[in-house]
Write a structure and sequence with these properties.
With about 240 residues, the chain is an alpha/beta fold. Helices cover about 20% and strands about 30% of the residues.
C-alpha cells in the first residue's frame, strides 16, 4: 500500500484495486507539460476510486474532481455536508456526511469526526489499516494575534474534539495532520497534543503548502513519541506504508 502526497492537504492512498483521493486542491504539478500524479496516474488505476473532501474551503475542495466521473466509471464521492450547504456541489453529486455519520461499503469505511474550523475530519478503515485525515481540525490558537480568552477557547474546543476521537479511535496507523508555520511560534502545538493522546504509528504533516521545512520540523517530536515520520520534500512524492 502506498501513500501519495499531492499538494497541501491533498493525499491519495493506493491500495489493492482501490484508490482514495482526499482533499484534492491542486495536482502534483502546475506546469501543463509535466506529468501529474492524479490526472495522469491515479485516475488511470484499475479498480474503484473514492474521492473525499473534508470541507468547502478552496484549499481542500476543487470542483474539478466532479469532472473525473467522465473519465472513470467506478468513482464514489463522499463529501462533508458543508460543501452542499455552501453550494459548491449539488445534492446528486456526492454522498454527504456530518460528524457522527458513517459511509461504508464492501471496500471501505469512512467515519466523520468534528473540526475546529469548517467541515469534518475523516477516519478511514481500508484493507486492515486505519487512516485519519484531520481536514482543518487543529489547535488554531493564533496566540500572537488572539486575546488570551480566544486562544484558551480555541485550545479547549480542540482538546474536547480530540478527547471524543480518542474515546472512539485510541490508536491509528496513519495520521495526516496540519503542521502549518503560518499559525505562529506554537504552530506544532495541536499536532503535539494529538499524538500525545492518540497512539500513532506513522505521522504525516500537511497544510504547509510549499513550506517543507516548517512541516518537517515536527519530525523530532513525532519520533520521540514513537511515530515513524514521513518527511515530505516535493509534490507527487510516494511512500510505501506497508
Amino acid at each position: 500500500m502506498k501513500l501519495d502526497y499531492i499538494y497541501h492537504s491533498g493525499f491519495a492512498i493506493e491500495a489493492n484495486n482501490i484508490t482514495v483521493i482526499i482533499d484534492y486542491y491542486k495536482d502534483s504539478q502546475e506546469e501543463t507539460s509535466a506529468r501529474n500524479m492524479v490526472n495522469d496516474d491515479l485516475l488511470e488505476r484499475e479498480g474503484a476510486c473514492y474521492v473525499l473532501s473534508s470541507h468547502f474551503h478552496p484549499d481542500h475542495f476543487n470542483k474539478e474532481v466532479l469532472l473525473w466521473k467522465e473519465r472513470k466509471k467506478d468513482i464514489h464521492y463522499i463529501f462533508s455536508k458543508d460543501i452542499l450547504k455552501h453550494r459548491r456541489a449539488s445534492r446528486t453529486d456526492a454522498i454527504y456526511i456530518n460528524k457522527g455519520e458513517v459511509y461504508e461499503d464492501s471496500n471501505i469505511r469512512i467515519e466523520a469526526f468534528g473540526s475546529t474550523d469548517s467541515g469534518i475530519s475523516l477516519l478511514i478503515d481500508l484493507q486492515g489499516m486505519r487512516f485519519f485525515h484531520a481536514g482543518d481540525l487543529n489547535n488554531w490558537h493564533w496566540n500572537e494575534e488572539s486575546t488570551p480568552e480566544e486562544a484558551h477557547k480555541a485550545e479547549a474546543d480542540f482538546l474536547a474534539e480530540v478527547k471524543y476521537i480518542q474515546k472512539n479511535a485510541p490508536a491509528m496507523d496513519i495520521v495526516l495532520f496540519p503542521v502549518d508555520r503560518r499559525l505562529g511560534k506554537d504552530y506544532m502545538r495541536g499536532a503535539e497534543q494529538f499524538i500525545e493522546r492518540i497512539k500513532t504509528k506513522i505521522f504525516v504533516p500537511m497544510h504547509f503548502s510549499e513550506d517543507y521545512e516548517g512541516g518537517n520540523a515536527f519530525q523530532s517530536f513525532a519520533e520521540r513519541k514513537g511515530c515513524r515520520f514521513l518527511t515530505i520534500s516535493k509534490r507527487g512524492e510516494r511512500f510505501d506504508i506497508t
